Records
---
Amino acid sequence: MSTTNESGVNLVPIPTAEDLCFQILEALGVPGRDAGIVTNSLITADARGVSSHGISRLPVYAQRLQAGLINPTPDIKVIRDSPSAVLLDGANGFGHVVGARAMSTCLAKAGATGAAVAGVRQSTHFGTAGFFAQMATEEDMIGIVGSNGAPRMAAWGGRTSLLGTNPLAIAAPTGGSDPLLLDMATSAVALGKVILAAKRGEPIPTGWAMDIEGRPTTEAQAALDGLMLPLGGPKGSGLALMLDVLGGVLTGACFGMGIGSMYRDWDRSEGLGHVFIAIDIGRFLPIEEFKQRIDDLCAQVMGSDLAQGFDSIYLPGELEFLKERDHRTRGIQVDPGVWAEITALAGELGVS
Amino acid sequence: MSTTNESGVNLVPIPTAEDLCFQILEALGVPGRDAGIVTNSLITADARGVSSHGISRLPVYAQRLQAGLINPTPDIKVIRDSPSAVLLDGANGFGHVVGARAMSTCLAKAGATGAAVAGVRQSTHFGTAGFFAQMATEEDMIGIVGSNGAPRMAAWGGRTSLLGTNPLAIAAPTGGSDPLLLDMATSAVALGKVILAAKRGEPIPTGWAMDIEGRPTTEAQAALDGLMLPLGGPKGSGLALMLDVLGGVLTGACFGMGIGSMYRDWDRSEGLGHVFIAIDIGRFLPIEEFKQRIDDLCAQVMGSDLAQGFDSIYLPGELEFLKERDHRTRGIQVDPGVWAEITALAGELGVS
């Protein structure tokens, strides 16, 4: 079912991982179409090397489904509808499913009017924001996606946890096969890097995190018990806050300290909110002209002279697309502990 | 006309500064209504302590007007029009004027459909992005503004100058008198801080800039001759690039290395592009409910315990609004060299 490489990481063929993920979700009561969306989001993240948003999340999703905190068959409802603005209630469905529905609705509206915004309340963890931004590029649109998240950062200057590492994704189509796809957390670094350092007992650089008392720390475990630091200090903090205004305050979702944690809160739903913006390129320029222009900009980037200490330059998302091509051939890398959890879960559910 | 404070900085009463700025612009052929918009943008920036975007720019604007590179009476045209998307040609008018027109158009469309996007090509330096984002809040909307700019940064990993310190502003109304107003360059720090350090002969911290050979530098002059570094490395670089896609590629404006410098290019216009997004809050929630919710989020921020080394926490824009109140009473701070340039310019133009 999987092979182990030289660093002790399992290499799982993508069809195997997809099949297992899909069957586990179906066994937990998720209808086939929705199980397909979640599977696609998770396995794509793993294929792109973003394993923090891949099938490593399946065990906690399963627990929350079993606890009734993720609804496998949500009645996702449009609760406010305008020509270029729409508000959806996610009914505690999988964020991946709710988000895909919201972005589809947003794209249809943008196709009709030129641009649109969709807001979502009562959602759950939605995987990578880039998954939805990329949907826009497949229809020759630009997609912008934001979300709030469970508190993991303080506002700049504080040490009270009240901001998620709220992600922002922006995607645009190019003349080539891959879009430009920026997908970034508003923390200085991804939480996953701190988790990895803690597992390995290694220190972390200053600037990544602070301890629970609001002091800079280089100890990974103190960082995990404390707070992540925002990207670029006040700028990342401000951006995270404004993403909460757009994703949380505007949509009627929970926001700030009011958001539930997927890992810690077992008596309540997460109450997450997201925002989706779609811009129909053809309302500005003929799409072929746009693609020539964006390819020209990309060529300028790729033709740059290198700075000291670098041996390559990547476009937003490019490194992830390169990994995806490699992993689609060789299989995705899955941590042995994660793989053991998932196969145990499959066993419990009677999935082969 | 002005007094000098203990640090040798001129304190100019705001009505004096406004009057002088307005009269200089009118003497250069800018019609009263447009001169008022530019004056408002510049003096508001000075009042908020953002003197890099205040009347210190007036001399270069005057030179570009006199060189025919800023058009004092532009025929700003809508060249593509959809219910929620509009593209304007700024005809080399003042970016402040073109931007205000674009945001007004965008707000009207968002009022009709729920959300809208305006793109602008053939524009010039537009001052602070926040000036336009704040316009949205006065109509109970959320405003998002982006622009490209003359190259001052490399893509992450490179040392070829091809990205501006492309700004992003996001503003939302609150229940109080001031909106939340995030207005940030995508460079690690503002160029103005490097200019100041160079003037004072002081070193700059690593992480701010690199020299022309792509090596990290702590010498302010080498930084000015070299490149600014992006906010948070690849994240700021990616964000700057996507802002160029939205402001430049999408709008038919110049982009990347193709953008003209306001200071160096005297044989061509800047060819800047901007993007404006407006979201009508009332299409999502009753505005009073939105304001209660955003005030609750702000109260969470302001009620935070302090991190080590901090004695206060500010909301996005708050520090600037505090300065504005102070400066509206005491006058704005103007560098003596800048003040001498402006009064000399006034003299040449026969403005008293």
Note: Chain B has eleven helices and twelve strands.
---
Amino acid sequence: VRPNYLGEHFIIELFDCDQMVLNSIPKLEAMMLEAARLAKATVVSKAFHQFSPYGISGTIVIQESHFNIHTWPEYGFAAIDLFTCGTRLNAESAKDFLIEKCNAQSFDLSKIKRGILNKNV
Amino acid sequence: VRPNYLGEHFIIELFDCDQMVLNSIPKLEAMMLEAARLAKATVVSKAFHQFSPYGISGTIVIQESHFNIHTWPEYGFAAIDLFTCGTRLNAESAKDFLIEKCNAQSFDLSKIKRGILNKNV
């Protein structure tokens, strides 16, 4: 059965994370690429940027949409978005892996459907 | 007064858009860059990809987080995320501009706060 929506979006808030992870581009890039692999996503491109004095933004464009992370090491906080299309992907595995890798002491997760078509049918 | 959250995230669903816009990288790229300018954001990098046979994914990394778009021209649908940090930015202007440029006949907008700290205080 084809779902009546086009994408699924995990909005993840990670609190009290390992600050060394959150302020390291090599660590975050490796982590996000591994998360994409675990989700069975196909990586198209990536862009990571270090901000001054703290904080990193990273995007992994995947064939099936994108994964984003923004970190605030000074607050031990990371905001992650996993936007996937298609039923083949496993965003749950990616989410679990990221929470563990960041050593988040608590997290919030919202799952929203994107592109709900024929709402009025 | 400093807000108790780190970022604001506009989740925008655009329905019944101009399909010619949604399947044109030059149009979408120019549109997203103009949206960033209207929001007073500083563009750091961008990545746009055409998928086969239809659909485009685009990310604009800005100094103050990111703007994303994914399009499904065959459904006239676009999913847009505007994630901004700081109180200086004007995501409202960007949002209004994007709705107009895509000629969306209807839209949904959710605004969520990212990085709400000291939740238990």
Note: Residues 100 and 111 of chain A are 19 Å apart (CA to CA).
